[in-house]
Amino acid sequence: MREVDWTQKPHFGWLALFVSGGTLICCALPILLVSLGFGAVAAGLFYNVPGLQFLAEHKAWTLGLSALLLAGLAWIVWRPGQSCPADPQLAAYCARAKTLNRRIFLAGVAIWAIGFFFSYLILPLRLWLES
């Protein structure tokens, strides 16, 4: 029986998007809605979605845990010693999975960065620009 290397599967990239999506939902989405004039929609989301309020109240833990998980996923995606099979068809699938993993992971990091920016950097930046 052939051993399967799970790090070659594209589900690790999707895990990165899932992990960083929590930071986007808790931190960037409400600020975006309020900035666009949809404050009532943001209030309705916080009232009707119980997990959203918990994530927003604990945004330091949410961002920290997701950053830690993204760091672990970065090691899985870019770790040294990964090799593709010798079979040309399997090697092509392996290379495509690696490329897909890296692209999805980078999208997850971009989502995390947006959440971090709107959670911790936008207010000090605005106050600095006003002074």
Distance between the termini: 67 Å
Give the count of helical stretches. 5
Q: Which regions have little confidence, pLDDT < 50, spanning 5+ residues?
A: none
Radius of gyration: 19 Å
Largest sheet: none
Kindly report the oligomeric state of this protein. single chain
Helix content: over 70%
**Average pLDDT metric:** 79
Give the strand content. under 5%
Order of helices and strands: HHHHH
Overall strand count: 0
Task: Assign an overall shape.
Answer: elongated
Helix/sheet category: mainly alpha
What does this structure look like?
It is a single chain. The protein is mostly helical. The chain contains 5 helices and no strands. It has helices at 11-35, 39-48, 50-57, 59-78, 88-130. The chain is elongated, with a radius of gyration of 19 Å.
What tags apply to this protein structure?
single chain; 0% strand; 5 helices; 131 residues; mainly alpha
Quick overview of this protein structure:
By secondary structure, the protein is mainly alpha-helical. The chain contains five helices and no strands. Helix 2 crosses helix 3, helix 3 packs across helix 4 and helix 4 packs antiparallel against helix 5.
Secondary structure: elements and pairs:
Layout (H helix, E strand, L loop, with lengths): L10 H25 L3 H10 L1 H8 L1 H20 L9 H43 L1
